[in-house]
Specification:
alpha/beta
C-alpha cells in the first residue's frame, strides 16, 4: 500500500429502489460492517415510498454513525408538492448530519438557512464559475453529474472535495410521470407500489434484444452499470477523493470489497473488473462517460 492509494473514501449512495423495510435495514446492517467510510441515506426518487419516514432515516443515521460511518442525508431529486417540501425542510433543519441537496428547492432552503451542504449529482454544475457560485452559497462538497468526463470534473471542481458515481446503474432522468405505473396501466396515484416488485428496476431492451434502460418509478436509469474500478490514476489526476457506490440488489458486498482492494490496497483492477462484470446485472459494465464518450461505451 502507498500513501497515494489511501485517498479514496468509499461512499454508499442512497438506495434508489423500493425495497421492503426489512431488506433495507438488513442492507444497512451489512454496510455498517463493511469497509465503506460514508453512507448517504434517504428516499430520493419517489415520495410515495413510505417504508421509511424521516424519523426512521434519522434513527438509522445515528446507528450508522455509532458504527463509525460518516452519514449524509439526501433530499428528493424532484420535489412535486407542498408535502415534499415539508419533508425537505425537516431534513434540512435536523442539524445533526450534512445534507445533500437533490434539487433547486433544497438549495433554496439550505442557502436561506445558511448551513453548509453537499451538491447532489442532479444539480447542474458544468463550469468552474457555477461551482464558485455554489461555494459562495454554502456548498462544501460536490457529487459530480454522472455524464461528466473525469477531465471535465478536474477542471470544474476547484478546491471542493469531489465524489463521482463510480459503480451502479446510472440515474439519467426524472419525470413527473411514473413509468412503472404506466407500464402496468395504472395511474401514478393508484400505482399499487408496483416498483416494489423490481428490486433492480424494470429492464427495457432494444428491438434487437440489447438491454438499454431501466424504469424505476419516476426515474430512468441506464441498464448498464457504470464501473470506474480501472480508473485509479485518472480519478486521482482529476482530484477525486470519494467514490459513490450505488446500492444494487445482489453482490453488493463484493462490490465494496473489490473497490476497497483496488482503490486503497493496490489490488488488480483488470481482474476486479472481470469479476464484477461476471456478477453484473443485464447490461454489463461501462465507463464511457468518464472518458468523454457515450455512457454505454466500454473503454479499455
Amino acid at each position: 500500500m502507498t500513501a497515494s492509494q489511501e485517498n479514496f473514501t468509499l461512499s454508499i449512495g442512497p438506495v434508489l429502489y423500493y425495497w421492503p423495510r426489512n431488506e433495507l435495514l438488513q442492507f444497512y446492517a451489512d454496510v455498517a460492517e463493511s469497509r465503506a467510510g460514508s453512507v448517504v441515506l434517504g428516499e430520493v426518487v419517489c415520495s410515495r415510498r413510505h417504508e421509511m419516514k424521516t424519523a426512521d432515516w434519522l434513527a438509522l443515521a445515528r446507528d450508522l454513525r455509532a458504527a463509525g460511518k460518516e452519514v449524509v442525508l439526501a433530499t428528493q431529486a424532484l420535489i412535486e408538492s407542498e408535502a415534499d417540501l415539508r419533508v425537505l425542510r425537516r431534513v434540512a433543519e435536523q442539524g445533526e448530519f450534512l445534507v445533500e441537496a437533490g434539487d433547486a428547492s433544497a438549495l433554496g432552503v439550505l442557502t436561506e438557512m445558511r448551513v453548509p451542504f453537499s451538491l447532489g449529482p442532479h444539480i447542474n454544475v458544468y463550469s468552474p464559475q457555477a461551482m464558485n457560485e455554489y461555494v459562495r452559497l454554502g456548498a462544501t462538497r460536490w457529487v459530480a453529474p454522472v455524464e461528466l468526463s473525469l477531465d471535465a470534473i478536474g477542471g470544474i471542481r476547484g478546491g471542493v472535495p469531489t465524489e463521482v458515481f463510480a459503480y451502479g446503474r446510472m440515474p439519467l432522468a426524472f419525470s413527473a410521470r411514473c413509468f412503472t405505473a404506466r407500464h402496468h396501466r395504472l395511474s401514478k396515484d393508484q400505482c399499487e407500489f408496483r416498483c416494489r416488485d423490481d428490486a433492480a428496476g424494470l429492464l427495457l431492451s432494444t428491438g434487437e434484444g440489447q438491454p438499454f434502460l431501466v424504469l424505476n418509478g419516476i426515474q430512468t436509469q441506464s441498464a448498464a452499470q457504470q464501473c470506474l474500478i480501472t480508473e485509479h490514476a485518472r480519478l486521482q489526476a482529476a482530484g477525486v477523493t470519494r467514490l459513490r457506490l450505488s446500492p444494487m440488489s445482489r453482490h453488493f458486498n463484493g462490490v465494496i470489497d473489490a473497490f476497497d482492494q483496488v482503490m486503497n490496497h493496490g489490488g488488480d483492477a483488470a481482474q476486479a473488473w472481470r469479476e464484477l462484470d461476471a456478477a453484473s446485472l443485464p447490461g454489463g459494465l461501462v465507463n464511457g462517460f468518464a472518458h468523454g464518450q457515450p455512457g454505454i461505451a466500454q473503454v479499455a
